Amino acid sequence: MADKPSIPKGTRDFSPLEMARRNHIFDTIRRIFKVHGFLPIETPAMENLSTLMGKYGDEGDKLLFKILNSGDFKSKLSPEELSETPAGRLGTKISEKGLRYDLTVPFARYVVQHRNEIDFPFKRYQIQPVWRADRPQRGRYREFYQCDVDVIGSNSLLNEFELIQIIDEVFQALSLKVVIKLNNRKVLAGCAEVIGAPEQMIDITVAIDKLEKIGLEKVLAELVQKGLSPDSVTKLEPLLKMEGSTAEKLIFLAGFLEGSELGMAGLQEVRTLLAYVEADPLGSEVELDLTLARGLNYYTGSILEVKSAEYAIGSICGGGRYDDLTGIFGLEGVSGVGVSFGADRIYDVLLQLERFPQRGDLDTRLLFVNFGEAEVKHIIPILGRLRKSGIASELYPDQTKMKKQMNYANNRKIPFVALLGEQEIADGMITLKDMETGMQERLTPEQLVERISSAK
Amino acid sequence: MADKPSIPKGTRDFSPLEMARRNHIFDTIRRIFKVHGFLPIETPAMENLSTLMGKYGDEGDKLLFKILNSGDFKSKLSPEELSETPAGRLGTKISEKGLRYDLTVPFARYVVQHRNEIDFPFKRYQIQPVWRADRPQRGRYREFYQCDVDVIGSNSLLNEFELIQIIDEVFQALSLKVVIKLNNRKVLAGCAEVIGAPEQMIDITVAIDKLEKIGLEKVLAELVQKGLSPDSVTKLEPLLKMEGSTAEKLIFLAGFLEGSELGMAGLQEVRTLLAYVEADPLGSEVELDLTLARGLNYYTGSILEVKSAEYAIGSICGGGRYDDLTGIFGLEGVSGVGVSFGADRIYDVLLQLERFPQRGDLDTRLLFVNFGEAEVKHIIPILGRLRKSGIASELYPDQTKMKKQMNYANNRKIPFVALLGEQEIADGMITLKDMETGMQERLTPEQLVERISSAK
């Protein structure tokens, strides 16, 4: 036999069991997006390289999968160009399209391209795969789904609040306990301002993040090394020593940020958002976390990140507000806010905590054993009736050994097997076997539908 | 402003409205696949070129989208190789992966690769996009979804029957009247055998197909031209003159095919299949159609094709039995049968006949007007209650002019608008406006949930 075929590294096949579990996640997320009035869109897997290049930094450009132009892609190139151009630049000469790297840039492109058809504020969600030529490793794939939800064209903090509600509802529906961490770029910028180091906002945030791990002394030393003046370090110390609940932190920050208009504006945003949360309390905890440094180079206001409260795996959802998403495509002044759910990590958490439902809604509930042509004719209409009642049911297609057919039922975890032989045909009855208890009972077709419908 | 961004030719963005319509098709198909016990799988967008090449003929190989190897893709090639190799061969040197061209070859690869984990017979469905570097034209895209359902590892005609049932149920659920056309390669081969022209099965089938259009004389002339002997032509004439119902055709064929064992076997398959259909009559018409030449170079038994009975657009679903799908990957002797639904054409038929449902299940039903912060705090818990009852509802995020907010409701076709101002807060009531009739009523939050739930 030939070598077993394989798939490109970093990609995956999804088996029926994996699909059932993934759909449990996606269906839950989709249901909650919809009940909040978000609308789905899809964009093509391939985008023009001119759309993608330069949007993810140099490193990102290298991670784009480029598609070779079709036909005689090198006819317009001289032999010199072919052999002397560096591979990267040759790549863009023989390739005009690439696979999307995320859903954000295609969404920005979509909004600009279709702006005259869109009703703003535009509440959209998008669940599609993305591709990155990253080095594959545990938990990092070259093809993976992103699951994005954004509101574009509205500055209101009600949008942030709605995203927090969505996060809360999704993880409650998935039976996962999470902590929703909240930060605000304006608060961070304000902190950097009041200590006289406005350029070093990111250094400061990264330092705060290390506090628990390396302690106050080492953090301060690191900041000095990064060029923070002794005066700034002294002013920063009270912030680093800040403790207590989110309410207590807010009180402290109101004093700390007093000299910064931007910082106070950020603080007011945090307060407003938390007041919304109080108006209809969530199942999940929301906490202010100044160490949240996610996307500081593009988020302009609120920053959100979600962690499992039960299993350590990093962020399972996150996002924030960006004030100029569509500017890269020439449409200025459109503010947006969105979060992205990490389907692969959520999958891992559900699997580790054994929180996937035992069976899918429509797994096969009943298998008819195939005894031969005469019996099959009697089974067909009964099968039709079961399916019309929404009961997923099958007839084993081949007339083979009973053992083989029962093995199929066992392996597929089908809970009921129906037997319809000569005697049953004569009596108009069906023998139903419960595969778990082994119990058998004789039922009319009506009783059969009733019995399977009412079984858990 | 910069040039409006665009997408590669032959690809599409799907707007929320298009998504709702496409999901109506996919959800219907998926629901019916599931109730028949079919299981979903997904395979990666990228396959190794070694998996794809040579499976679709020379023409197909040219239509594969190839992905440029990442990193320094040309470092292993000499300048001579780069400039002198024809583009096609250079392509395979700087590219090892391609986008899938259909779902059949990846499925065959999947079955071989995972054969030890699969419970046969394997009833699988797969709904994913495929890519072809075809010249784009009306109704032909470079990225489009396929929607395949197959049973692999069983020879039983019950599988063909189940596929016919699925076809019938899908199109009934979509409110489309269709004709399911049935043919059998063995019957066609038998016909070619009994007239002494076994090599010319395809010529004969194609000729029969032209009968209505060009008439008997011209068809016979064409067959002579294709090298059919006068004796064969004479023997073929009665077949070309065959008329009547499917039952009458079966009687005629029983005589015509008498000399061919293969032909009689095919005829018996058709009879068995039609007997199954009689055991639980369908809503759609099933007819034997010897002119069905679909996939004659790979189907080995039953051939199926579905046409709309109301709108001329070509085949909207089709498939057949193939006896050696996995042989290309070294696993011999596994028979399969499957059909593929043409989502884009089904979409066009539904659109032309105006059979799409008026509104999606979860379109937004209710919009709260935003009068300001004080009112918002009262709206938030009511909104939570509506959503918990499964009612998709929104609060306009910005406190802007009433007209702008009402326009949003109008454009989004939201049927109800809720007003909650000072007076309503004092009374604990909500003013509900029916956007179609313009009627207003005052309701408690409980009555509001009740009212929206019971509205059509």
Describe this structure in words.
In chain A, helix 1 packs antiparallel against helix 7 (158-173), helix 8 packs parallel to helix 9 (201-225) and helix 8 (185-194) packs antiparallel against helix 12 (261-279). The first copy, chain A, has an 8-stranded mixed sheet. A 5-stranded mixed sheet of chain A has the order 13-12-14-15-16. The first copy, chain A, has a 3-stranded antiparallel sheet with strand order 2-4-3. Chain A has 456 residues and is α+β, with helices and mostly antiparallel strands. In chain A, 43% of the residues lie in helices and 18% in strands. The two termini of chain A are 45 Å apart. The first copy, chain A, has 17 helices and 16 strands. Chain A has 2 domains: 16-64 and 101-352, BirA Bifunctional Protein, domain 2 (2-Layer Sandwich); 360-454, 3-Layer(aba) Sandwich (Rossmann fold), CATH 3.40.50. The model of chain A has no long low-confidence stretch (mean pLDDT 93). Chain A is globular. At the A-B interface, helix 1, strand 1, strand 2, strand 3 and helix 4 of A face helix 1, strand 1, strand 2, strand 3 and helix 4 of B.
CATH C-level of the largest domain in chain A: Alpha Beta
Count of discrete alpha- or pi-helical segments spanning 4 or more residues of chain A: 17
* Overall CATH architecture of the largest domain in chain A: 2-Layer Sandwich
Work out the radius of gyration of chain A: 29 Å
List keywords for this structure.
homodimer; 456 residues; alpha+beta; BirA Bifunctional Protein, domain 2; Rossmann fold; 17 helices; 16 strands
